[in-house]
């Protein structure tokens, strides 16, 4: 009962502000920016949605070729994560006004990427993937598409949470992909998750056997956005003081408590778009990595199944040894998903490889502050913008 209540609470969404009902492209247009919708098909058949803000609010800015930023959301998020803070605190808008061509990705299974060339979301096979497949298929497909569309041989990459995990893994294992990246800005970076707290930690220990999580959650999607949850939010999350604080606290149960930095006036907007869904298998993969305290591929649950997929009885380990992309990390001291102990392990590896160019730690920041913080533009985004302009 507690887990069911927690999941429901986490999903609660409000809808008084008009942006709560808008799609990503509508949010972009509502804030006065040009917008393009793009679709790319992965080699395993998933059709991924992307948004583009080709220039800022100055009309003459459309005339010149611009350096490109690609923004990739985190676990249970979508491209709206970079659009739903206030306009002067949303990374996508700040980058566009600073003279960059901005692209926003959506990985398989989130609200805006639930199409496939032959599978349907009601099929269990549609959801038979984890972040392994995002690394192998989604990220290369989106980045190659952006490079081809813009004519830029290299682009800047910003990832938040899972957006950093698939980037670290992809850039260290796919050198052709890595060659497309001029610099990597990692917000709340995640690789190892041995010390995570909150909801993901509790999911990992719901049962003695990891494979039993499929019996609890099924084989399909995990925490998708639904009209029922929207209705709940309309009547609760936007109630001043009490509704906002309770819904905000539900988010904190997943990511870490830091109410002073969160823009509570926009909680109904944030929660109208989040959680945006993923696969149960993806959540099981995180649970496996947490319990094993390892950086590994998905474990299919038996030596026979692993042998069939990998040619060995256990899932292969990932390795950062080949990472060569200049990397800038931004971490918080109160982050439950990018826990400081796990982050310390990552920073040690990046330093030894010589790719860590700058590390900024922000006291009190939790996981969501890097996309929804009151002062995140000053604390984080201007550093990214200034660095990219200097390169």
Explain briefly what this protein structure is.
The protein has helices at residues 2-11, 24-30, 91-97, 131-150, 162-173, 175-178, 199-204, 213-217, 227-235, 242-255, 267-273, 280-292, 303-310, 340-353, 369-372, 376-390, and strands at residues 36-41, 46-53, 68-72, 101-105, 115-116, 155-160, 181-187, 221-222, 278-279, 327-332, 356-362. By secondary structure, it is of the alpha/beta class.
Mean pLDDT reading: 87
Please report the total strand number as a whole number: 11
Beta strand %: 5-15%
Q: C-alpha Rg, in Å?
A: 20 Å
Helix fraction, binned, reads 25-40%
The protein's oligomeric status is single chain
Which structural class best describes the helix and strand composition? alpha/beta
Q: What is the count of DSSP helices, taking H or I runs of 4+ residues?
A: 16
Major β-sheet profile = 9 strands, mixed
Could you explain the architecture of this structure?
This protein has 391 residues and is an alpha/beta fold. It is 40% helix and 14% strand. The protein has 16 helices and eleven strands. The chain has helices at residues 2-11, 24-30, 91-97, 131-150, 162-173, 175-178, 199-204, 213-217, 227-235, 242-255, 267-273, 280-292, 303-310, 340-353, 369-372, 376-390; strands at 36-41, 46-53, 68-72, 101-105, 115-116, 155-160, 181-187, 221-222, 278-279, 327-332, 356-362. Strands 1, 2, 3, 4, 5, 6, 7, 10 and 11 form a nine-stranded mixed sheet that branches. The protein has a two-stranded antiparallel ribbon with strand order 8-9. Helix 3 links the parallel strand 3 (68-72) and strand 4.
């Amino acid at each position: 009962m507690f887990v069911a209540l927690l999941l429901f609470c986490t999903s609660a969404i409000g809808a008084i502000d008009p942006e709560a009902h808008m799609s990503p492209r509508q949010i972009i247009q509502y804030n006065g920016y040009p917008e393009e919708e793009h679709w790319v098909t992965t080699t395993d058949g998933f059709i991924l949605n992307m948004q583009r803000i080709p220039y800022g609010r100055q009309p003459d800015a459309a005339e010149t070729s611009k350096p490109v930023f690609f923004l990739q959301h985190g676990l249970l998020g979508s491209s709206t994560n970079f659009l739903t803070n206030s306009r002067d605190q949303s990374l996508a808008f700040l980058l566009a006004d600073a003279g960059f061509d901005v692209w926003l990705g959506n990985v398989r299974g989130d609200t805006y990427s639930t199409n496939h060339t032959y599978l349907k979301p009601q099929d269990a096979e549609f959801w038979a993937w984890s972040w392994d497949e995002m690394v192998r298929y989604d990220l290369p497909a989106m980045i190659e598409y952006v490079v081809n569309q813009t004519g830029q041989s290299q682009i800047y990459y910003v990832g938040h949470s899972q957006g950093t995990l698939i980037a670290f893994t992809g850039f260290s294992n796919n050198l052709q992909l890595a060659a497309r990246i001029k610099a990597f800005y990692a917000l709340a970076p995640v690789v190892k998750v041995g010390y995570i707290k909150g909801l993901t930690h509790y999911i990992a220990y719901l049962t003695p056997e990891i494979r039993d999580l499929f019996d609890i959650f099924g084989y399909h999607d995990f925490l998708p956005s639904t009209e029922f949850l929207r209705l709940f939010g309309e009547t609760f999350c936007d109630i001043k003081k009490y509704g906002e604080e309770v819904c905000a606290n539900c988010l904190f149960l997943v990511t870490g408590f830091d109410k002073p930095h969160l823009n509570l006036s926009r909680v109904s907007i944030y929660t109208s778009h989040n959680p945006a869904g993923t696969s149960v298998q993806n959540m099981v993969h995180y649970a496996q990595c947490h319990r094993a305290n390892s950086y590994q591929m998905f474990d299919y649950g038996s030596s026979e199944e692993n042998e069939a997929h990998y040619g060995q009885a256990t899932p292969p380990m990932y390795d950062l040894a080949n990472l060569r992309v200049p990397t800038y990390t931004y971490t918080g001291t109160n982050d439950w998903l990018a826990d400081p102990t796990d982050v310390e392990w990552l920073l040690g590896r990046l330093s030894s490889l010589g790719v860590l160019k700058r590390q900024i730690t922000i006291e009190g920041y939790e996981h969501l502050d890097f996309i929804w913080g009151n002062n995140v533009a000053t604390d984080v985004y201007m550093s990214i913008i200034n660095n990219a302009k200097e390169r």
